[in-house]
Design goal:
Layout (H helix, E strand, L loop, with lengths): L5 E4 L8 E2 L7 H7 L2 E2 L1 H9 L5 E5 L2 E6 L2 E3 L17 E5 L5 H9 L3 E5 L3 H8 L10 E3 L2 H12 L5 E5 L3 H4 L1 H39 L21 E4 L5 H4 L3 H7 L1 E5 L3 H6 L6 E4 L6 H4 L9 E4 L5 H4 L14 H11 L10 H12 L4 E4 L21 E4 L5 E5 L2 H7 L9 E7 L8 E4 L3 H17 L5 E3 L11 E2 L2 H6 L8 H11 L5 H37 L3 H23 L2 H6 L1 H9 L7 H39 L9
Parallel strand pairs: 1-10, 3-9, 7-8, 7-10, 8-9, 11-12, 11-15, 12-13, 13-14, 15-20, 20-21
Antiparallel strand pairs: 2-4, 4-5, 5-6, 16-17, 17-18, 18-19
Helix pairs in contact: 2-4, 5-7, 5-13, 7-16, 19-20, 19-23, 22-23
C-alpha cells in the first residue's frame, strides 16, 4: 500500500500586542522532564540562549522572533482531515505550544515536534506548565531520524504541520524537514513489508537469544568511547577486490567492521577484522563458524539474528540490536542502551554503530550498492557466483543467485526474488552510470540522508566512500582507500581493549536480572490477554444484540467496546513483544475490505473482524507467556548463558 506525505500550513491572524512577563528559569528542568527528549536535544536546550519573547495578542499568546509573530491557535478546518489514530504528525516549530495543544485535542496518534532553534524551545520551557503532553521534541533532524522507528511504529504515513511563521523564518530547515520526512515515510513503507514478514521471527529469535546477554556487554556500551578513531565498514560488493588487500593496514589504523557476507572474502585474503557484524534472521552459521578468526574477533551479532548464528564462533560476543519500534523499548529497559538505526542492510547497522562509538572518519569499503560488472557480490564471498543481467527490454534486472545463497535464504521467511526493476545511478567518482535496483535504493538513500543530517549536526565527522566502484553515495567524499590510509596514524584498538572497555562502561547482566525482565514481560503480556479476551466477549455479545434487533443493548455494547479497545491499546503499549508477535495476523484482518454498502452489514463485519483480531492478540499473548516463562525458569536455575550449539 502506498502512502503520501500530507503537508499543510497552519494559518492564523495577528493583531495588537500585550507583554507577558517571563517566569523564573528554574522551571526549565521540570518542563523538559515532562517531554520525551533525547539527551542531545536536552543538552542543546540547556546550552541555548533565550530566543524571542512571549506576548499576548487578542487574549492568546504568541512568540515574537525577529519581528515575526509565531504560533497562534489554529482555526483551520483542515485539522479534521487528520486521522484519529493513523500515521505520525510532525510539527515544524514549537512556538508557544498553541498548535501542538490544539493538535493533541484532534489527534490520538504520535506527535513529534522539530524545533530548529533550541533558544525558542528554551524560551517556552522556562514558562509555567506547557500542557503539551508526552510529545517528542527534537532540535536536530538527526535525532528525529534516529528516533523515527520508535515514533512511527508500524505505520508508513506522516503529515507535516508547519506552525505559522516558521517556513519564512527557517526556509532551509523547512525544506530539509520535508525531504527527510518523505524519505522516512518511503523507507517505512519498505520496513512495514519486511516487518510483516519477519516480526514474529524476530521476537522468537530474541527470546531464544536473550540469555546470551548474561556476561556479554552490548557493543553500544562503548558509545562515545572511540572518538576520533577511524572506522572501516566493509561490505561484500564486487569492488571489494580492488582494495581488500589494504584492510590489514586499516586494522592497524582504525576499527575494521566486516559484515557477515564480507567476512569470508577477508578470510580468504588472510585479513582479520576486529569485528564481524550480523543481523541475518536466516541461519548463516555454516558460512561463518569455520573462518579461522571467528575464535578471536568480536561478534557484533543482533539479538534478533538466528539463534544458531549467535552460537557459532568462540570470539567475544558483544550483542547489538536494531531500533525496531516494537522491540527497542523493551531492550532499552533491559540493557540501558538505545538500538541502532538501520535500513535493510547490516552495513547500515555497522555505520550506525561506528557513529555511536564516536569514530571518525567513517569509511565505506566494498559498498557498491549496485551490480558492478554484472556481479552481485565480491570474489571470495560465499555468494560470489551470483549474477545480474539486464533484461532484453532494458527495464529490469534478471537475477541469478548462486546455489549457496538460495539454499541459505530460501530457508527463511522471504525467499530470494529473481527480477527487479532496473535503475541506472551515477557511478563512484562521477563516472559512467551503473546498474542498480530496488534492493539497493533504500540503503543508498539512507546513507545519503544520514550524511546530510550528520554534516549539519556533527560537522567534524568525516564520511568517506572508498569503495572505488559501484554507485555514488550522496554526502560521502570519494577517495581511494590507499589515499585515506596514507594520512592516518596507527590508532587501531585491539579486541581485548574493546571488550575490557565495554565491560567497564556497562556491567554485563546476570541471569537473575534477565529472568526478572522476562517475568515483567509475562505480567504485562497477561494484561494484554485479559484485555483481548474481554474485547472478544463484548464483540460477540454486541453481535447477539444486533441479531436480536435490541437497539438499546447494541448502543450500550458499543460504548463498552470503545472502552475495551482503549484498554487493549494501552495494555499492548506496555507489552510491545505481543504487538510484534501478532502483527501479521492483525494486519491481514485490517486489510480485509468491506463488501457491502449497507451500514448494518458493515457494522456486523466490523464486530466480526474485531473478535478475530482480539482472538489473534489473545493467542499471541498466550504463546509469549509460555515461551517467556520457560526461559525465565531455566535462567533462574542456570546462572550462566546456555552454551549449546543449535
Amino acid at each position: 500500500m502506498e502512502h503520501e506525505t500530507g503537508v499543510f500550513d497552519v494559518v492564523a491572524a495577528v493583531s495588537e500586542v500585550e507583554a507577558v512577563m517571563l517566569p523564573n528559569v528554574d522551571t526549565l528542568e521540570d518542563n523538559m522532564a515532562r517531554l520525551d527528549l533525547t539527551e542531545p536535544t536536552r543538552e542543546a536546550i540547556r546550552a541555548a540562549a533565550l530566543e524571542g519573547r512571549i506576548e499576548e495578542r487578542d487574549g492568546a499568546e504568541v512568540l515574537l522572533v525577529e519581528g515575526r509573530a509565531l504560533d497562534r491557535t489554529p482555526m483551520d478546518p483542515r485539522w479534521t482531515n487528520i486521522p484519529s489514530e493513523e500515521g505520525v504528525v510532525v510539527v515544524f516549530g514549537i512556538g508557544v505550544g498553541n498548535t501542538v495543544r490544539a493538535l493533541r485535542e484532534q489527534f490520538d496518534g504520535a506527535v513529534a515536534i522539530y524545533e530548529p532553534n533550541p533558544g525558542i524551545a528554551r524560551t517556552l520551557l522556562e514558562q509555567g506548565p506547557h500542557g503539551l503532553g508526552d510529545v517528542d521534541l527534537f532540535t536536530s533532524l538527526h535525532e528525529l531520524e534516529q528516533t523515527w522507528p520508535r515514533i512511527s511504529g508500524a505505520t508508513s504515513s506522516a503529515t507535516i504541520v508547519r506552525v505559522v511563521g516558521y517556513p519564512e523564518l527557517y526556509p532551509k530547515e523547512n525544506a530539509e524537514l520535508h525531504s527527510m520526512v518523505e524519505q522516512l515515510v518511503a523507507r517505512s513503507s519498505v520496513n512495514v513489508s519486511t516487518y510483516r514478514q519477519r516480526a514474529r521471527t524476530w521476537v522468537s529469535d530474541l527470546l531464544d537469544n536473550i540469555e546470551l546477554l548474561a556476561d556479554a556487554p552490548p557493543f553500544m556500551a562503548l558509545a562515545g568511547k572511540l572518538e576520533g578513531v577511524p572506522a572501516f565498514i566493509v561490505g561484500a560488493g564486487p569492488s571489494l577486490a580492488k582494495n581488500a588487500h589494504l584492510l590489514d593496514e586499516a586494522r592497524r589504523k582504525g576499527l575494521v567492521i566486516a559484515v557477515n557476507s564480507s567476512a569470508p572474502a577477508l578470510s580468504r585474503r588472510g585479513i582479520e577484522p576486529q569485528v564481524v557484524a550480523c543481523l541475518e534472521s536466516v541461519d548463516v552459521s555454516h558460512l561463518l563458524r569455520d573462518l579461522p578468526f571467528m575464535s578471536r574477533v568480536i561478534r557484533a551479532y543482533s539479538l534478533t539474528a538466528h539463534p544458531a548464528t549467535l552460537r557459532s564462533g568462540d570470539g567475544p560476543l558483544m550483542p547489538i540490536f536494531e531500533a525496531l519500534p516494537e522491540l527497542e523499548s523493551a531492550l532499552v529497559k533491559l540493557t540501558g542502551q538505545k538500538g541502532l538505526p538501520v535500513c535493510g542492510s547490516v552495513s547500515t547497522a555497522a555505520f550506525s554503530l561506528a557513529q555511536r562509538l564516536g569514530c571518525s572518519p567513517i569509511v565505506l569499503v566494498g559498498q557498491d550498492l549496485a551490480y558492478t560488472g554484472g556481479h552481485a557480490y565480491a570474489t571470495g564471498t560465499a555468494y560470489e557466483a551470483s549474477r545480474a543481467c539486464i533484461s532484453e527490454d532494458g527495464k529490469s534486472l534478471d537475477l541469478s543467485w548462486c546455489t549457496t545463497l538460495r539454499e541459505t535464504h530460501d530457508a527463511g521467511a522471504a525467499p530470494m526474488h529473481d527480477k527487479e526493476p532496473l535503475e541506472w545511478v551515477t557511478g563512484w567518482g562521477g563516472g559512467e552510470p551503473v546498474p542498480s535496483g530496488l534492493s539497493f535504493s533504500p540503503v543508498r538513500a539512507w546513507f545519503g540522508q544520514a550524511a546530510r543530517v550528520l554534516a549539519r549536526e556533527t560537522p567534524n565527522l568525516k564520511l568517506v566512500n572508498a569503495t572505488e566502484g559501484g554507485a555514488r553515495i550522496d554526502g560521502f567524499q570519494e577517495v581511494a582507500l590507499a589515499e585515506i590510509l596514507s594520512g592516518l596514524p596507527e590508532r587501531g584498538p585491539s579486541v581485548e581493549e574493546l571488550v575490557t572497555r565495554a565491560r567497564a562502561a556497562a556491567r554485563p547482566l546476570d541471569a537473575a536480572a534477565i529472568a526478572d525482565f522476562l517475568q515483567e514481560q509475562v505480567r504485562a503480556t497477561r494484561r494484554v490477554r485479559r484485555a483481548a479476551e474481554g474485547l472478544k466477549k463484548l464483540a460477540r455479545n454486541a453481535l447477539k444484540h444486533m441479531d436480536r434487533d435490541d437497539a438499546g443493548r447494541v448502543a450500550r455494547g458499543f460504548r463498552k467496546l470503545e472502552a475495551a479497545e482503549a484498554e487493549l491499546r494501552d495494555s499492548v503499549r506496555g507489552a510491545p513483544l505481543v504487538d510484534a508477535w501478532c502483527f501479521a495476523d492483525v494486519d491481514a484482518e485490517m486489510e480485509v475490505p468491506d463488501h457491502s454498502d449497507d451500514a448494518r452489514a458493515q457494522a456486523r463485519d466490523g464486530l466480526l473482524r474485531e473478535a478475530r483480531i482480539a482472538t489473534a492478540v489473545s493467542r499471541a499473548a498466550t504463546e509469549l507467556v509460555r515461551r517467556a516463562e520457560q526461559i525465565a525458569t531455566r535462567m533462574k536455575r542456570e546462572p550462566g548463558p546456555e552454551k549449546s550449539r543449535r
